[in-house]
Every structure is written in C-alpha cells, then in structure tokens.
Amino acid sequence: MKDERSLNIDLARIFAIVGVTYYHIWKRMRRPEYIVGIFNLDGFAKWGVIGVIIMFVISGYCMVGSYQRLEGLPTGKRLKSFYLTRFLRIAPAYYISILICCIFMANNLKPQPYEFKDVVAHLLFVHAFSMETVAKIKGFYWYISVQMIFYLMVPFIFLVCKKAVLWLKLSATAKKVAAILACILLFPLTWITFFSNMEYIAMLPCFLVGMLAAYLKGVKVPRVIGILLFLGGIGMMFIKSNPFLTYDAYKSISGVAIALGFLWMPKINVKNSLRTIIIALSAASYSIYLYQFAFFAFIPKKGGEFVMTLFVVFTVAVGLLMYLCVEYPLANVLCRGNKKQQV
C-alpha cells in the first residue's frame, strides 16, 4: 500500500524555505530590528535562518523511510538504488543553478572571486569541508554539500544502529527508550560554539534527531506536545534575544522545536485545491533555495516590509518556475525509467 502523503512535512518544508528566503533578503536589505518591549516584530526575518535547521531535521526524518523501503533488496542493489536516487534528486537542478550563477551573475554579486577549482569542489559536493571554498560562488550552496555528506552516511548509521541493537540485545521497548535518550543527548551538540563554522558537524545532530523521530513514529506522542513545541519555537522567534543563550543554542532550540512540532502535531488535512498548492510549493522548495540569488542585484539596501515581502514572493515564484522547468520533467523521466525496469 502506498504511504499517504503527509501535509505536515510539506508545510514544514514551506515554512523553512520561506523563512530562509526572508532571512537572506532581510540581511541583504540591512533592515534594523523592530523591537517593541520584549518582542521583535522582525523575528521571522531575523530567525528565518532556523529554516535550515528545520530542513535538516525533516530530511533526516524522510531518509529513514526512503532507506527502509529498499529493505528487501540485496545490500549492493540497495546502496546503489539509494545513492543513485539521492544523486538524481539533488545534482541536476544544483548543477544547472551553478551554471546559471556562473554565467549570468555580475562580479559584484559574488562573495569573492572564484576559480575553476572552486567550481570543481562544488560539483563534487565537497566545498563545505574548507572555509576557503564553502562561500565561493554563492554562500548558501554549503547546505547542498552538507546534505550530500549526510546522505552518504545514512546506510552506515543504519548499520551501526542494527549492530548496536544486536550486541546490546535490546527489547522493542528498550530500543524506543534508547532512541528517546539519544534525541535528548544529541540535541545540545548543535549548541557548541566551536562548531559554528563547521556546518557539516554542527548540523549532523539535527539530521540524526530527524532520523530518531522517524524511528519513534510507532510511539504515540501526545499531540499536545507537538502543538506546544511548535508554538514554543515560533514564540522564540519573536522574543527579543535571550542573553542567557548563545546564538547557536537559541537557533537550534527554536528550529528543532518547530520541526518536531510539525511532525508530532495533529495530522493536517485541507481541501483539494489548497492541498495541490501546498504540495507544489513543498516540491519546489529545493529549487526555491537554489535560486535565492535571482533578485539579489535588484534588492535595495533600504526598504520597508512591503518591499521585502515583494522580493520574497518574486524569489519563490522563480524557484517554482525552475522546478517546473527542470526538476518536475526530470522526475517524470526517472519515474518512467523505474517503471520500465520493474516490468
């Protein structure tokens, strides 16, 4: 039976990508924060960066299902199918984005001049390993590199967990308790300031929390916990910065809380037309991220809330268009290819 699509996950992706888009445009416009008492009315834009945290948690959550669906295959075929699917999901749109960026972006839009070796590092998804290459071409491409590194680790994580369970001879209940404890222990690792410039390390606990949340799907988490986590994370975005928490700790707590809130809150159902829009925007979230730079040249250094929102809408529209032109046709071709292989 085909798994029913979760609109909670789709809405989490949309929330994350809109937040990241607002953050990038807000920073480029150099808008001041609008503080009223203890509230920051520009909180969604300032803390939109937590969208990246949300995306890593959701990605880890989804990878568990993707890898488990291949369980019946021999190890070699399973690894080949998983890695090939991940590569074809990420690489084509990413490569086209790099090509467009390199050809059409003016020099003053680049963080710094880049060389051929920087392009090669990006094409091989290894640019996040070095501070010299991570911000070349476009700074936000670091996310793609880190994501691919985590995808490579998924089978290894499954293997380690399987061996650990066999070695410890854990019961079903003990495994779930261990998963909950692992979530609690992993979460604070994202707060460590030492890792703030090492995203491929700092984001791994977020990815693992998502994987553990997927493993705990069978546990009946009270829906009220999901709602409270979501509201708590949202509330943190609009509260004036807390002097007792570091920036990384604040960002991680809010991002993980919102992500788990989406996953654990009551199931969201909407009518067909709105459902179609939500699914389309969710599917296009990757392309929206890739084409964040589309209107950077035209974003004014100063502007009000309306101007900022207008550029966010334009950026989302360009990402949706590129999804329809690149990702969607490719997905159809791959789907037809898979059906032929099954026949």
Task: Compose a concise summary of this entry.
The protein is mainly alpha-helical. It has helices at residues 7-29, 43-46, 50-68, 75-104, 116-123, 142-168, 172-186, 199-202, 204-215, 223-237, 247-264, 272-283, 285-290, 305-342, and strands spanning 35-36, 39-40.
Provide a descriptive summary of the structure in words.
The protein is mainly α. It has one domain (7-341). The chain contains 14 helices and 2 strands; from the N terminus they run H-E-E-H-H-H-H-H-H-H-H-H-H-H-H-H. A hairpin with a 2-residue loop joins strand 1 and strand 2. InterPro entries: Acyl_transf_3_dom, Acyltransferase_3. It holds the Pfam family Acyl_transf_3. This is Acyltransferase family protein.
Helices and strands in order:
Layout lengths: L6 H23 L5 E2 L2 E2 L2 H4 L3 H19 L6 H30 L11 H8 L18 H27 L3 H15 L12 H4 L1 H12 L7 H15 L9 H18 L7 H12 L1 H6 L14 H38 L1
Antiparallel strand pairs: 1-2
Helix pairs in contact: 1-3, 1-11, 1-12, 1-14, 3-6, 3-9, 3-11, 4-6, 7-9, 9-11, 10-11
Task: Tell me about the largest β-sheet.
Answer: 2 strands, antiparallel
By DSSP, the count of extended strands is 2
Which runs of at least 5 residues are low in confidence (pLDDT < 50)?
none
Helix content: 55-70%
Total DSSP helices: 14
| Rg calculated over all Cα atoms | 20 Å
The structure class reads: mainly alpha
Taken from the alpha-carbon principal axes, the silhouette is: globular
Beta percentage is under 5%
Distance between the termini: 19 Å
**Biggest β-sheet: strands ordered side by side in the sheet:** 1-2
Instruction: Give the SSE string.
Output: HEEHHHHHHHHHHHHH
Total discrete domains: 1
Average pLDDT, all residues: 82
Domain Acyltransferase: 8-321
Keywords: Acyltransferase, Membrane, Transferase, Transmembrane, Transmembrane helix
Protein name: Acyltransferase family protein
Pfam families: Acyl_transf_3
